[in-house]
Design a protein that fits this description.
The protein has helices at residues 17-28, 44-53, 67-80, 107-135, 162-166, 180-200, 222-230, 244-251; strands spanning 8-12, 32-37, 57-61, 86-89, 138-143, 205-212, 262-265. It is an alpha/beta fold. The relative contact order is 0.15.
Length: 272
């Protein structure tokens, strides 16, 4: 019941750190996968998946901040496929002021965070769920975050190097902060998930959220890793592949009676 051989999956944000892992596991479980992201077709990642999975892997260059591009992607997919079984929203965006103190962040930075984490899932849902309604089945998975359900301990970021890793441009600051827009957008995404689940339940379209905790990245410095791990009952960050089981569960027929749920995979971070 966990296999995906007969399912067409549309993934937005599949070129990111977590999104690439999602691409691999979905293909391994047999899905026909359309990876919608801003990417170069000749990238090593894309080439490798094409060589291994052939036509089962279809990368589409899509700027998901533009609804007309999402619509074009849908039309392209439906020219080749008779259905869309799974929609996964795994996009995120950060403005250049993401790690500044709250009273110094800009409206532009706030809007960028809302666009990448909440508005794009709204646009993709509007575009693809009607396809699922017509076929009377489908699963939507919104990738959320623990910061959609808990607040931030800003002291945890003292001495970290996150701004150097995740932003192309970064102010030269010693103390960084996590941006409130991320909490607001991911919290909104969780409740938007519940809204969609209630709205489309009668159409047999399931909508769930998957909430990862912090995922290990070898570029993060020891200072941050130790502080984060100390706040987690399992004593570490997640490995990037530890979201795979939850994703396959929600995408597959193993979860046909699950909707409106937020599946939290955080090593216990949120239980304190």
């Amino acid at each position: 019941m966990f296999r995906l051989e007969n399912k067409v999956v549309v993934l937005f944000g599949g070129n990111g750190y977590l999104g690439r892992e999602f691409c691999i596991i979905l293909l391994e479980y047999g899905a026909t996968l359309y990876n919608c992201d801003i990417m170069l077709d000749e990238s090593e990642f894309t080439t490798g998946l094409k060589e291994k999975y052939g036509q089962k892997y279809q990368p589409l260059n899509v700027d998901a901040t533009q609804k007309e591009e999402i619509i074009k992607a849908k039309e392209c997919i439906l020219e080749k496929e008779s259905r869309v079984d799974v929609l996964i929203n795994s996009t995120t965006m950060k403005g250049d002021d993401f790690y500044l103190p709250f009273d110094e962040v800009s409206l532009e930075g706030w809007n960028i965070g809302m666009l990448g984490n909440l508005t794009i899932p709204f646009l993709t849902a509007q575009t693809f769920i009607p396809v699922m309604v017509k076929q009377n089945s489908g699963s939507v998975i919104n990738i959320s975050s623990i910061y959609g359900i808990v607040g931030n301990d800003q002291d945890m970021y003292k001495g970290s190097n996150l701004h150097e890793i995740y932003l192309d441009k970064s102010p030269d600051i010693k103390q960084i902060y996590s941006h409130g827009v991320y909490n607001a957008a991911k919290g909104g995404l969780n409740n938007f998930t519940r809204y969609l689940a209630a709205y489309y339940g009668k159409n047999n379209v399931r909508v769930n959220a998957l909430t990862p905790g912090g995922i290990y990245c070898d570029k993060e410095n020891e200072t941050f890793l130790k502080k984060y791990s100390a706040k987690t009952p399992l004593g570490r960050k997640a490995n990037v592949d530890e979201m795979n089981g939850a994703l396959i569960y929600l995408a597959s027929d193993a979860s046909t009676y699950v909707t409106g749920h937020n599946l939290i995979i955080d090593g216990g971070f949120s239980i304190w």
